[in-house]
Amino acid sequence: MKTLKSVFSKTIVLSMTTALLITGCSKTSTDSPSTTTNATASAAASEAPKQVTLKFVTFGSGKQADSQEVWDEFNKKLATLLPNTKVEFEPIVNTAYADKWKLMAAAAEPIDIAWTGYVLDYPGEVNKGSYLELDALVDKFAPDLKKEIPAWVLDRARVNGKLYAIPNYQQAVDNRPTLRVPKEFIDKGYIDPKLAQETFYKYGPVSKESLAVIENYLEKLKQNNQLRKGFSTANLPGMQHHNMLTAPFKLAGDLKDPKSLKVVNIYETEQEQLFIKTMTDWYAKGYIRKDILSMQNQRQDEGKADGNIAWFHTMVGSIEDQSKIDSTRYGFPVQVIPMEEKYVISNLSDSTNLAIPRTSKNPERAMQLLNLLDSQKGKDLYNLLVWGIEGKHYKKISDTKIETIGYSGQGTPDAKYGQWNWASGNTANSFETQANPENFTKIWQDTNAGATISPLLGYKPNLDPIKTELAQIQAVVKEYAGSGATQIIETGAVPDSDAKYKEFIDKMKKAGSDKITAELQKQVDEFLKTKK
Fold first, then answer.
1. Are the C-beta atoms of 24 and 57 separated by less than 8 Å?
2. Which of 127, 257, 260, 402 is deepest in the core (most CB within 10 A)?
3. Which alpha helices (H) appear in 297-453, and where do they start and end?
4. Contact status, residue 66 vs residue 393, Cβ threshold 8 Å
5. Which among 511, 493, 513, 447 has a CA at the least distance from the CA of 176?
6. Which runs of consecutive H residues, i.e. helices, occur in 150-269?
């Protein structure tokens, strides 16, 4: 690298010296062809981009056996698209990324491009000055990116109206809740999926009408001694938390009518009260296993042939495709029944992005590389970075589909090579793999296009005024509601759940839930004024 730079510098000096000598020997300074030629060459040399090496910190499966070979090929291809630019990669495995980033940031390590997303506090990093503002750089150096990525996608990475990262464009809709049931019980007439779907769409996933459909199914199973491991209570309430501001506070109302949007504590909603009351009733009737509170993972029986007879998960694309995927995954026929008709894009910040850290020494060139990774112009470069070398790391099935070698889905640390497409750029330009349903890219693009988009994209809550109250609330939630796959009050197994629920709400009030609601509502109202 130093040798190349030295040779390059000497070449420039030699060219300039030669031009001066020729000019000095000429009788005229205006008509000499040699003078004109050398002046043009000198100008061209001064305009040529300097040789730079960009440091790129990636997120995913970490360094693999063939990483260096792929990176060498990447730099060869990059030279034809972005001359005098080389990339030095520093891959960090996903589980170590948050801690590693903290060390890098504290040391002010020079980095030109870095992944940022769900394992970090993105707005917090912005407020600390970790990333450069990108609007001007995008306008000047990323015209293709700006043309090909929808504006609302970029809005998801805005903080206080300014852009600090480029979201890795992908499926962006919120979780769409669905009910999963073994298909054999549909064949036996225990539940009508069409009628169930119509009810869910009309009344919503958590309503008296929808829960009655599920209970009718459970009752028939119990009568025929086929409850197996019972009903899984996990995941349904959580999948409905569109427009979550900061748990457990979200926006309720019609996304198409901003004036109707109100900040609520999810545990105080009518739907949550109904869900807890219903689960308590179902537990008493034997639809939910008796030892659920002692289970470290209450979802352990989902998707097992002898396990739960109903559970909740998400879906992408068609009902038929998702049912096929699940049936293959679980090893027995499964029927997916969607519970919400419309997809929603309400997440206030994107979960996966590429940023230019404030320590970058080459932000302009870094943005030019991001322009390639996020546009058709750099499609082949992007796929090389993600999937590796054809014939060695994947087999080409068609122009758009490949079969990965040594793994399925996304790269693993022990694979020869294979990174994560959703952490590396615009997935609209990605190959589809054997793990995807047919026409997967078109499916998620159409899904995004048909979704209801929250008017609050770009809003990032300022939690500083309420951080003490939020910490107290989290402690109360953990005590009464649990977390993740270890729920408490929502299992229905808590004795005297009515009294416990009232106690739960009262403790949150004392911890400051009303103050949090008022502060977030004020921020939301102020943000919406800027959108008019």
1. no
2. 402
3. 319-330, 363-373, 379-387, 440-450
4. yes
5. 447
6. 151-155, 183-187, 193-203, 208-223, 236-239
Question: What confidence tens digit (pLDDT) does each residue in 488-532 have?
Answer: 999 999 999 999 999 999 999 999 999 999 999 999 999 999 886
pTM of the model: 0.80
Strand partners, 394: 390, 404
What is d(CA 44, CA 41) in angstroms, rounded to the nearest whole number? 5
Sign of CA pseudo-dihedral 212, 213, 217, 220? positive
CA-closest candidate to residue 241, choices 232, 233, 250: 250
- CB-CB contact of 422 with 354 (8 Å): no
- Measured distance CA(521)–CA(462) in Å, rounded: 11
Q: Model confidence over 232-284: pLDDT tens digits? A: 998 776 666 678 899 999 999 988 899 999 999 999 999 999 999 999 999 99
Assigned token pair, 170: 């992908």
Q: In the predicted model, is pLDDT for residue 409 greater than 80? A: yes
Nearest to 176 by CA among 237, 124, 126, 240: 240
pLDDT in tens, 301-312: 999 999 999 999
Q: Residue 482: how many CA atoms within 13 Å on its side-chain side?
A: 21
Q: pLDDT per residue over 160-218, tens digit each?
A: 999 999 999 999 988 788 999 999 999 999 999 999 999 999 999 999 999 999 999 99
d(CA 507, CA 505): 5
Which tokens is 119 given?
């394992």
- CATH 3.40.190.10 residue window(s) in the chain: 49-171+351-454
Is 293 within 8 Å of 216 (Cβ atoms)? no
Q: Please, what is the end-to-end C-alpha distance for the chain in angstroms?
A: 52
User: How many C-alpha atoms does 285 have within 13 Å on its Cβ side?
Assistant: 18
| Residue 426: strand, helix, or coil | coil
Q: Is 232 helix (H, G, I), strand (E, B) or coil?
A: coil
181 φ/ψ angles, rounded to the nearest 5 degrees: -140, 145
DSSP H helix total and E strand total for the chain: 20, 19
Report the chain's mean pLDDT, rounded to a whole number.
89
Residue 311 bridge partners (DSSP): 180
Architecture of domain 49-171+351-454: 3-Layer(aba) Sandwich (3.40)
